[in-house]
């Protein structure tokens, strides 16, 4: 997303901020309690997770990507199986990823795992969630990107750049619309 498009997106959001009820109709927060509870258990910001869910699936628990990602947090089936093993979740099946509570449990655990692996940096964890850990590790090792949003344009994957910008903006939106996410 070029700078003019980002600025336009931010300007539209700022205009909409003047009408909070309208914004709440668009920026929904379904599964609020689960997001807050699981985020806090794993020491993640609930507004960040809410923004991420909005970007990933628009809060559609039935969402499926063309790459095979499933549910609210668009968890890949192999990732879901791996996380389930880490959680000693013996009866996990891929269809569990369409269950909001189970998808959030897996997705939030995985994001927290990535954050631990990437120096507690939200941006590196989000980039890893979107692009894959091996790519993000490679960018760090080669000095391509260090997780600083000021240098987000250095990320070689356009989709990941857009993803990080959207989540960052929407995190602010969710914090504004739903102050309980920060309490």
TrEMBL record:
Which protein family is it in?
Belongs to the transglycosylase Slt family.
Looking up Pfam families in the UniProt record yields: SLT (PF01464)
Q: Which PROSITE patterns match?
A: TRANSGLYCOSYLASE (PS00922)
This protein's GO CC annotations: membrane
Domain of life (superkingdom): Bacteria
Q: Which GO terms describe its biological process?
A: peptidoglycan metabolic process
| A GO molecular-function descriptor | peptidoglycan lytic transglycosylase activity
Sequence ranges assigned to domain Transglycosylase SLT in this UniProt record: 34-142
The name on file for this protein is: Soluble lytic murein transglycosylase
């Amino acid at each position: 997303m070029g700078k003019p498009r980002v600025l336009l997106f931010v300007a539209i959001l700022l205009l909409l901020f003047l009408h909070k009820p309208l914004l709440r109709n668009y920026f929904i927060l379904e599964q609020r309690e689960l997001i807050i509870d699981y985020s806090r258990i794993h020491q993640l910001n609930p507004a960040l997770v809410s923004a991420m869910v909005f970007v990933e699936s628009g809060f559609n628990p039935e969402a499926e990507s063309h790459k095979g990602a499933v549910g609210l947090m668009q968890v890949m089936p192999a990732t879901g199986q791996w996380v389930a093993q880490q959680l000693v979740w013996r009866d996990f099946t891929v269809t569990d990823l369409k269950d909001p509570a189970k998808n959030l449990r897996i997705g939030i655990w995985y994001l927290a795992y990535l954050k631990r692996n990437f120096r507690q940096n939200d941006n590196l964890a989000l980039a890893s969630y979107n692009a894959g850990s091996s790519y993000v590790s490679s960018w760090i090792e080669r000095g391509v990107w260090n997780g600083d949003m000021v240098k987000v344009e250095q990320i070689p994957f356009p989709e990941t750049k857009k993803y990080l910008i959207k989540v960052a903006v929407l995190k602010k939106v969710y914090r504004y619309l739903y102050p309980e996410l920060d309490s």
